[in-house]
Specification:
Strand content: 15-25%
CATH class of the largest domain: Alpha Beta
Oligomer: single chain
Strand order of the largest sheet: 3-2-1-4-5-7-6
Distance between the termini: 66 Å
Helix content: 40-55%
Radius of gyration: 25 Å
Largest sheet: 7 strands, mixed
Structural class: alpha/beta
Number of strands: 7
């Protein structure tokens, strides 16, 4: 196959099945979360978050969700909580901030906790998003990430829906748990905990989802198949440095080249004594 034909076929596949910009996909994903299936997935995610957020402390918490109107931080004890989204959100319980998620308008080492709720799934550059999150976290700060598991009943149904539907809600990244863990390791984010949820088939009726709720309990116990969503807790692991105080008091003032040489000798003697 000629290279030009290969590039053209790849561009067509990307245009048909590729991830669309966040400004186009987030409103449709927020509408999917209002469906019975979306509400059932969101319920399991809230349960996973409540178990983890209550043990994470700090002063500043940032939530970055596919639905800026959501408040997924109710289980946290952190008082200052706000949300960031590339689209203007409706009025919600958290203070909204509209900005590009790939270039956060925040200084480095300023946040104690960042919650990523499926935003990396719908980002066109998920690795850049994680790099920005690692930058704004303080040393020993935590990242809580929720993503779709492509190797699950929910993930497989998304692949089928992508073939027959052009809705942006189905055109998301296929980020395996192992891939996310590799990225976190490269960004000096140490893995703390991994949890799974939503073991039910992706039914569209609320009555069917209620009748299959027993699969959540047995799915966590038996682990016969992976859950539809995963939750990762990671901690920014930055090694501490011990500054060495120069012993200028032991250096006598000198002049000229000979003086510079003697100063260097005194400094080396100081360092070796420390």
């Amino acid at each position: 196959m000629p290279y030009s034909l290969y590039c053209r076929a790849r561009a067509v596949m990307r245009q048909r099945f590729g991830v669309v910009p966040l400004q186009e996909s987030l409103p449709d994903v927020a509408a999917w979360l209002e469906t019975p299936l979306g509400q059932a997935v969101l319920e399991q995610e809230r349960m996973l978050l409540e178990q983890e957020l209550q043990d994470l402390f700090g002063y500043h918490l940032l939530q970055m969700s596919v639905d800026p109107a959501l408040d997924l931080t109710r289980g946290s004890r952190i008082t200052h909580r706000f949300t960031l989204s590339p689209t203007r959100a409706t009025k919600g319980p958290l203070s909204p901030l509209v900005a590009d998620s790939d270039a956060l308008p925040l200084p480095s080492d300023c946040l104690d906790l960042v919650l990523l709720h499926h935003l990396q799934d719908y980002s066109q550059t998920p690795h850049q998003l994680l790099r920005e999150v690692a930058r704004v976290l303080i040393p020993r700060g935590h990242l809580v990430l929720i993503g779709f598991n492509p190797w699950s009943l929910l993930g497989l149904s998304g692949w089928l829906a992508r073939c027959f539907s052009r809705k942006p809600r189905w055109r998301h990244q296929s980020l395996r748990l192992g891939r996310i863990m590799d990225w976190l390791q490269l960004l000096d984010l140490e893995l703390v905990a991994v949890r799974h949820g939503f073991y039910r088939p992706p039914a569209s009726r609320s009555s069917t989802l209620r009748h299959l709720h027993w699969l959540e309990r047995w799915g966590k116990r038996l682990l016969l198949f992976p859950g539809g969503v995963y939750l990762i807790v990671a901690r920014k692991d930055v090694g501490a440095t011990i500054p060495l105080k120069p012993c200028w008091s032991q250096v006598e003032p000198q002049t000229g080249l000979e003086g510079a040489k003697s100063v260097r000798k005194e400094q080396k003697a100081c360092k070796s004594s420390q």
